[in-house]
Structure formats: structure tokens, C-alpha cells
Amino acid sequence: MAVITPTNQSVLAFKGLHLYHSAISNCAMRVRMALEEKRLPWESHALDLKKGETHTPEYFGINPNGVVPTLVHDGVVIIESDDILEYLDDKFPDPPLRPPGPVQRAEVHYWLKLATGIHLPGVKPWIYYNRMRNALKMQGEALESYRRLQTNPELLAFHEKSASADGFSEQDINTSGQILRDAWQRVEASLQRHDWIAGAEFSLADIAWVPLHFTLVGANFDFEPYPAVRAWEARLHQRDCFQQGILKWCPKF
């Protein structure tokens, strides 16, 4: 569990649920969906990624990776979205978003970790290259400031490459695309067996994957080869947590 002690101690006095998030962040979308599915009251701290609002000393003092989401619950700070999802389900178990049995819970956990694992090597390059490279590309003083603040080598390397003159190469995006196709083929196979990713019931597994689908659609990833995924998407669009957690903040990616 990625619970941290922030250097920006102003958040330690927060009461209730506070979420630092961005409208267009798929990792933030999943946490908003969980909060809405559980009908939990929460206070929004919305940050604009296009304006670099996560790349400030104040925010790095809350989340040392300089990314969203960050959940603060009664002064407890959790910074990884899959950990936030499991934390919320532990603290607020009604309605449950994981099944009670250990084997079934392990299945949900597997899908959470797979979604997180493909994010940096697969999802981010694809989205930056096909949708966000001009909007989120850092240059000049913004890049220098980020270099001073960022201590996560993987995130730093990603943004250095994004900011470089060459940017992501065609080979980079081919690799990203293959990672995504392999992952969605696994999701397709699971959804051919049951209505939801981890079984018969809607769960954190679905909440982890639907924002990836939503943002990848906006970045022109081809979902035509995955009919079960497309049927799953249609079911998800009917859920209030999708409407309130995603479309309310980001009607179109």
C-alpha cells in the first residue's frame, strides 16, 4: 500500500475524502468511478495537466511522483491508483467491489496490476504520440523545473523522451501497440466467458480498465478486433459511476 508521509504537511489536517485529480487522467478516472460507485462524498482538488499544475513544488510535496491521483483520507495520503482502489474497498466495503473469496480476490488483484503494469510502457506512449504530444510536451523552464523535482527515473525518462527533438519513434509506438493488443486480447478472452472482467459481478477490475479503454478510443486505438470488449463498453456506459466518474469531467477525450 503506497501510503506516504508528505513533505507538504498542509494535507495532514484534511478531514474526510479529498482527491487530487485531473479530468483527462485515466488513473484519476478509475478513482472517481470507485468513489461514485460507492456514493462517497469527496472534495475535489482538480489539477490541469495541460497547464503543468502537477509539476509544482507544492504538489510534489503531496505526491513525490508529481502525478495524479492522490487520495487524502483524514490526513492519510495514498498515491498509487490501484492501491487507492483497494484502500477504498477496505475502508468503505458497501457496496463491495471485490468478491469475498481469496481466489476471486486474487483474480481482481491480477487485473488491477496488469492495467497498472501496461500504463507506462503501453498506454502513455500511445496516448502521448497519438493524442497529447503537443498539449503535454514540456519545454524550456517547464522541463528544467520538472528535472529538478522528479526523482522517479522511469517518469523522468519518459518525459525526457517526450520532450526530445525526435520524441517517440515509430518503433516505440509499434512496441506500445503490441503491448496494448496483447493486454486487450486477455481482456477479450475473459469477457467472452462472463459479463465482467473478473467474473459475474462488476468489480475493481472493470473500474481499472474502462478508463484505459475510454482514453485509448480517443487516441485512435483500434478496438474492432475485440467484440466482447465493445459489448462490455456498452454495458459500462449505462452505469452511473461511468457517467459521474468519467463523462462528467471529460465528456470527450
Folded structure, characterized:
The chain contains eleven helices and five strands; from the N terminus they run ββαβαββααααααααα. Helix 1 packs across helix 9 and helix 1 runs antiparallel to helix 11. The chain has two domains: 89 residues, Glutaredoxin (3-Layer(aba) Sandwich), CATH 3.40.30; 146 residues, Up-down Bundle (Glutathione S-transferase Yfyf (Class Pi), Chain A, domain 2). The model has no long low-confidence stretch (mean pLDDT 95). A five-stranded mixed beta sheet has the order 1-5-4-2-3. 55% of the residues lie in helices and 7% in strands. With 253 residues, it is α+β, with helices and mostly antiparallel strands. Strand 2, helix 1 and strand 3 form a beta-alpha-beta unit.
Find the count of extended strands (DSSP E, 2+ residues): 5
Sketch the major β-sheet.
Answer: 5 strands, mixed
How many domains comprise the coordinates? Answer: 2
- The structural class is alpha+beta
Using the alpha-carbon principal axes, give the shape: globular
β-strand percent reads 5-15%
Distance between the termini: 30 Å
CATH classification class of the largest domain? Mainly Alpha
